[in-house]
């Protein structure tokens, strides 16, 4: 693993522990049949009963085990050692069966020989990808004929805004690499009940990540072009004028159902998007 990936892995290992400290009730929630996915993901995913689902960048496994509760045969993949340990522990506590693999996602996609009916990922995926084309080809390569790719992601427009909701940065493009000295933050703790559907625990306070991380800035058009070029037919592209759960910007206001919209007086703008794509059987470029 190269040094940038290794730095990101260390940063996620540290953050995973803090995130889990706020979700101590999650095992009971899942054991009772609870689902951590938001309505947007569930709608895009559709009926999963009996389907083989690969969950990329699965973190500590709560969403992966929610897929199991929806009837899927799920495999979760994440580069963080600690996240995968926590996911396996959560699987044992809940009695829900899923396979969890510790691997960098593009490496896993290029090596695995299995085929899946659905490949799924959500919220904070694209910013960790150094090579969109490699990722998209990998997604296509593990889909069975007619299989679907489903993603819900933060809209790149939000990356242009500062804390006062003013445009301060250029629209993301070209995979520009950004080093964050503060590393992966405790966004679970900062979001409270929004990202702890089983019940929020105070857990770790004042978390400071000692490990920096590296992000990549991609535009929405680049994501769609990569998927299409890998042979995936774009069936739906949806944009949402709110974000689910995570308080990514100051002043977000609750509008029901875990949704957070811009402050009053700020014009509506897309804060997340959803994609459904189907594997056509051959790349277009």
Give the SSE order as H and E letters.
HHHEHEHEHEHEEHEHEEEEE
Mean pLDDT, all residues: 96
- The low-confidence runs, each spanning 5 or more residues with pLDDT under 50, are none
Number of strands: 12
- Residue share in β-strands: 15-25%
Number of contiguous helices: 9
How many domains? The number is 1
- Gyration radius, rounded: 18 Å
Helical content stands at: 25-40%
CATH topology: Rossmann fold
Termini separation comes to: 28 Å
Indicate the CATH class.
Alpha Beta
CATH architecture: 3-Layer(aba) Sandwich
How would you describe this structure to a colleague?
With 285 residues, this protein is of the alpha/beta class. It has one domain (3-279): Rossmann fold (3-Layer(aba) Sandwich). It has nine helices and twelve strands. It has helices at 3-21, 26-31, 39-45, 62-69, 81-94, 105-111, 132-142, 187-191, 220-229, and strands at residues 52-56, 73-78, 99-102, 116-122, 143-154, 176-180, 213-217, 232-240, 243-244, 253-254, 259-261, 272-279. The strands form three sheets. Strands 3-2-1-4-5-12-8 form a seven-stranded mixed β-sheet, sandwiched between helices. A three-stranded antiparallel β-sheet has the order 9-11-10, with no helix packed on it. A two-stranded antiparallel sheet has the order 6-7. Strand 10 (253-254) and strand 11 form a beta hairpin. The model has no long low-confidence stretch (mean pLDDT 96). One of its GO terms (molecular function) is methyltransferase activity. Residues 54-147 form the Methyltransferase domain. This is Methyltransferase type 12. InterPro entries: Methyltransf_25, SAM-dependent_MTases_sf. Keywords: Methyltransferase, Transferase.
